[in-house]
From TrEMBL:
This is glutathione peroxidase. The keyword Transferase does not apply. Pfam families: GSHPx. GO terms for biological process: response to oxidative stress. One of its GO terms (molecular function) is glutathione peroxidase activity. Belongs to the glutathione peroxidase family. InterPro entries: Glutathione_peroxidase (IPR000889), GPX_CS (IPR029760), Thioredoxin-like_sf (IPR036249). It comes from Fulmarus glacialis. It comes from the Eukaryota. Its EC number is 1.11.1.9. PROSITE patterns: GLUTATHIONE_PEROXID_2, GLUTATHIONE_PEROXID_3. Keywords: Oxidoreductase, Peroxidase.
Length: 71
């Protein structure tokens, strides 16, 4: 996503990151663990250059309002 933001940001694209554990169990940790986990993954030192929101649900009773709107 950093590369996409770098390439298309000058044209007005804004990347918004919404972590969720409902995408194949990719974010099982707490909000406080997401950014540090990204930083230490292979190729370490990753720092997002886009807005990263708190972890939330995409579906179900606790679905984030942004997903309700997009549906």
């Amino acid at each position: 996503l950093n590369a996409l933001q770098n390439e298309l940001g000058p044209y007005g694209l804004v990347i918004l990151g919404f972590p969720s554990n409902q995408f194949g169990k990719q974010e099982p940790g707490q909000n406080s663990e997401i950014l540090p986990a990204l930083y230490v993954r292979p190729g370490g030192g990753f720092v997002p250059n886009f807005q990263l929101f708190q972890k939330g649900d995409v579906n179900g009773a606790k679905e984030q309002k942004v997903y309700t709107f997009l549906k």
